[in-house]
């Protein structure tokens, strides 16, 4: 448990200094195929193609955050006002960008969506553009936080879950699991990206606790009855909870969140 507390403390501190709401300046490029991003480091697979209307992005390590940034949403616009709109587009982070030239590599659909009407092909021909961006809340209408049980799960010895549809502007940095009605909790570890696992699988129906950071604040979200007794790999289960918190970083100089 002490290791888990240190882990949580680290993420609370790193989130507090991130100032995700601040507008940042960088460059963006694009992948010609969205499948390159949906099959990326977050592990969403084809499910990612439904996020933000297919407006997906790979982010640099400071945005990927060792997988904690998976599913984060960003508003991004190119700075060429002749070519691009003022509002830009909103993307969901689904992959890690290891390159050094750009903070983002976008799906071609997201890249073209930054352009003014009729100029999508023009911006695609550029290949790389100057952009500014800021983190924004993710919105999943009528959709709760959900867990997908991965195919590698083997009852009762191993459970791997994938987090889906996390709303708001926060990060899940810890997960506990217990049998419904029990107070004997055990923790899951982040396997990679949005996938968590444990080899200490309680028997019976399962409840979960999620440790959520919202900038320098953190809280625990309890989902009392998520996986049924007969849970199955490949299935998606509704937690019946929504996370809609907005990050509260200590960066008052840009708390208005406006574009420069």
UniProtKB/TrEMBL annotation:
| Listed SMART domains | DPBB_1 (SM00837)
Gene3D superfamilies for the chain: Expansin, cellulose-binding-like domain, RlpA-like domain
Quote the protein name from its UniProt record. Answer: Expansin-like A2
Q: What broad class describes the main subcellular location of this protein?
A: secreted
Compartments in which it is found: Secreted
> InterPro entries from the xrefs?
Expan_Lol_pI (IPR007118), Expansin/allergen_DPBB_dom (IPR007112), Expansin_CBD (IPR007117), Expansin_CBD_sf (IPR036749), LolPI (IPR005795), RlpA-like_DPBB (IPR009009), RlpA-like_sf (IPR036908)
Its taxonomic path starts at:
Eukaryota, Viridiplantae, Streptophyta, Embryophyta, Tracheophyta
Q: Which residues form the Expansin-like EG45 domain?
A: 39-143
Keyword Secreted found: yes
Q: Which GO terms describe its biological process?
A: anatomical structure morphogenesis
According to the entry, every stretch annotated as the Expansin-like CBD domain falls at: 157-239
Q: Which GO terms describe its cellular component?
A: extracellular region; plant-type cell wall; plasmodesma
A Pfam family hit? DPBB_1
Keyword annotations for this protein? Secreted, Signal
Highest taxon in the source lineage: Eukaryota
SUPFAM superfamilies noted in UniProt: Barwin-like endoglucanases, PHL pollen allergen
**Family affiliation:** Belongs to the expansin family.
> Secretion signal: which residues?
1-18
